[in-house]
Each structure stands twice: as structure tokens, then as C-alpha cells.
């Protein structure tokens, strides 16, 4: 019965190491996705430390690939030293992922304050004639999120750009996508997106941060199972060094 349990633990451990390789790719993808999205929305918040969870999760993903390699070799060869190293590294990565979750929640809460603090300044700096990066970011956000203005399209009336153009219209990025003859005129508000961008930008950025949090939590749970199986193998290895190897011809360390 004990031998069955130890064999099952080793089999699960080998399978988990394969999952770690897949997890490495997924975590790196999530981190890269956060970076790419940040590039689209970075004008709406000034705290670059918001990217810390993404940086950490990419580092964890890279480390998980190495962990999977160590774990597979250590499990198949029944290496006590290798399994102990595997458990220690897993524990360190687990602690790191807990830190990612905590930081994710902290920066998720800060996103709303950051956007509220900077969005009006970004809109006031809009230049539709010779658009700079911030102006292009506003047009991109309004098209992607299907919104107009900060709280609604009337916010454009308070901007420098609106007062300078004096044509009583908002940027064409406020026009509904289905309309081809929209000029952005405030005399036809039904042609414009009615929802403001502030709440939608906050929601989008908080969703992205939640991807990081859930990814870290999911793989932290897998790592707990990996540590448990490795500890079972190590305990059995210490009590009974003559137990059967997972593969024939394996050597002890």
C-alpha cells in the first residue's frame, strides 16, 4: 500500500513538472500582456511601480521552466539532493507568488486613484491637429472602449482643444463605429458614445491586474501539490532507501 502511495506521488510529481513547463509559458504570456496593455494606457497613470507584479510574474515563469527540468530529473533518478533542492526552490517561488498576489491587490486598489488624478490632465493636453503620443492614446482608448470624454462627451467642452477649434465637435474617435458619416458634432449626440472613459479605463486596468492575481493563485496551488508530493517521496526515501525506483536502472544520489 505504501509502495503504491509513493509510486503515485512520483507519477503525480512528474506530471506536475510537465505542467510547470506549460505554466512557465502561460505566466510569461500574462506578464507580457500586462506590459503591452500598459503601453496603451500608460498616459492615464503615472505610477510605473504598477508593473512590478508583471515583472515578478515573468521572472517566476522563467524560473518555473528551470524548476520543471530539475523536478523531472530529480524525480526520475530519485535524487534526494535534487528533490530537496526542488522543494526549496518551489517554496521560494510560492512565497514570491504570494507577494505577487499581495502587490496585485495593492496596485489594483491604486489604479482608480491614479486614473482619477491624471485623466483630466491628459484630456486637457489633447491635440487633434498634430497628435502626440498622449493624444493618440486618447483616440485609441475611445475607439477600443467605445467611450467619449471623461464621464461623458460633454467633458470635451472644457478642454483647450475644444475651445481652440470652435467647431462645437468632439474627436472622431467618439463616433460610434457603425456610423460612417459621423462628424463628431455635439448637435448630434446620438452619433457619439454616451459612456465616459474614466470608469472603463479603471475597469480595464483592474481586470488586467486580476489576470496576474488569478494566474499567481492558480500556479501557487499547483506548486503546493508539487511540494507535498516531493516531501512524500523524500520522507519515504529517508526511511526506506531500498524502495523501488520509478524507472529501471535509476541511481540514488
UniProtKB/TrEMBL annotation:
The chain crosses the membrane at residues 12-36, 48-71, 83-107, 208-235. The keyword Membrane applies. It comes from the Eukaryota. CDD domains: TM4SF8_like_LEL. It is a multi-pass membrane protein. One of its GO terms (cellular component) is plasma membrane. Keywords: Glycoprotein, Membrane, Transmembrane, Transmembrane helix. It is found in: Membrane. Signal peptide: none annotated. Regulates the proliferation and migration of oligodendrocytes, a process essential for normal myelination and repair. Interacts with claudin-11/CLDN11 and integrins. Belongs to the tetraspanin (TM4SF) family. This is Tetraspanin. It comes from Caloenas nicobarica (Nicobar pigeon).
Amino acid at each position: 500500500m505504501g509502495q503504491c502511495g509513493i509510486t503515485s506521488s512520483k507519477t503525480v510529481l512528474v506530471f506536475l513538472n510537465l505542467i510547470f513547463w506549460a505554466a512557465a509559458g502561460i505566466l510569461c504570456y500574462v506578464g507580457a500582456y500586462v506590459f503591452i496593455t500598459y503601453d496603451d494606457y500608460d498616459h492615464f497613470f503615472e505610477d510605473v511601480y504598477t508593473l512590478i507584479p508583471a515583472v515578478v510574474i515573468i521572472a517566476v515563469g522563467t524560473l518555473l521552466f528551470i524548476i520543471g527540468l530539475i523536478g523531472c530529473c530529480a524525480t526520475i533518478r530519485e535524487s534526494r539532493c535534487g528533490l530537496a533542492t526542488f522543494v526549496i526552490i518551489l517554496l521560494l517561488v510560492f512565497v514570491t507568488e504570494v507577494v505577487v498576489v499581495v502587490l496585485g491587490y495593492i496596485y489594483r486598489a491604486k489604479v482608480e486613484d491614479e486614473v482619477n488624478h491624471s485623466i483630466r490632465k491628459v484630456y486637457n493636453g489633447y491635440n487633434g491637429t498634430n497628435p502626440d503620443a498622449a493624444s493618440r492614446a486618447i483616440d485609441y482608448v475611445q475607439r477600443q472602449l467605445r467611450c467619449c470624454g471623461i464621464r461623458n462627451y460633454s467633458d470635451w467642452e472644457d478642454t483647450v482643444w475644444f475651445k481652440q477649434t470652435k467647431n462645437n465637435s468632439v474627436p472622431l474617435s467618439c463616433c460610434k463605429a457603425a456610423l460612417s458619416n459621423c462628424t463628431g458634432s455635439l448637435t448630434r449626440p446620438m452619433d457619439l458614445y454616451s459612456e465616459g472613459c474614466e470608469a472603463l479605463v479603471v475597469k480595464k486596468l483592474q481586470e488586467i491586474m486580476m489576470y496576474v492575481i488569478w494566474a499567481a493563485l492558480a500556479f501557487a496551488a499547483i506548486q503546493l501539490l508539487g511540494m507535498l508530493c516531493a516531501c512524500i517521496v523524500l520522507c519515504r526515501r529517508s526511511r526506506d532507501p531500498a524502495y523501488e525506483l520509478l524507472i529501471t536502472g535509476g541511481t540514488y544520489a
